[in-house]
Known about the structure:
Layout: H1 11-17, H2 25-46, E1 53-62, E2 67-69, E3 82-86, E4 95-97, E5 103-106, E6 111-114, E7 123-133, H3 150-168, E8 174-178, E9 183-186, H4 188-191, H5 194-203
Antiparallel strand pairs: 1-7, 2-6, 3-4, 3-7, 5-6, 8-9
Amino acid sequence: MAVKAYALTTAQRAANYSELGTLxxxxxxxxxxxxxxxxxxxxxxxxxxxxxxxxxxxxxDTEESETLNLKHHPIISGADFSLERRTSSLNExxxxxxxxxxxxxxxxxxxxxxxAGLLFGRTIRGYRVTYTAGYDFDNAITFLSDTxxxxxxxxxxxxxxALWNKKKGGGSIVESERIGDYSVTYKKxxxxxxxVKAILDKYADTDNVGVITPLQA
Length: 217
């Protein structure tokens, strides 16, 4: 089993943290499975993807507001960025680009902020955004620990260490399991760690629902 392209760490880096030596065979397969599951857990908890990724025409509902919170951050400065508005009140595929003079982008938080006091109206899937967000690492030469979000890789190692020790100790770490489109849920006691939670809470979105929608000036 290979780790996912957006994995927070590698099986061997996790093994190094836990002083397990070089993994091979069934042990390597198990650690790769755990890396994938911990990655998905951390993403679900925080609401963001940490690996640099380009999101194309990501759709947003909006309420009357001066801001819109993008689902992922930080925004990569210099990458293509486009905010589009649906030009019809119907569900028609008619869009226009909102000129950048009408908004600012906070790259660190991923928040689009209207300019000149414009209000963004209420829409359902009325805006779409193309942007690149996340941290630049490849898990080959550069790693999440090399970025500003290095503590997330540490949190992943801590979770993996707990899961590995519970599994190898003979205790069950699984709360529920599904076979079709394989899915597994780990027991809360395994995943709850105050040090880990303190790290993840730094990144967790309090509201990643789209709340931005500039009205046409």
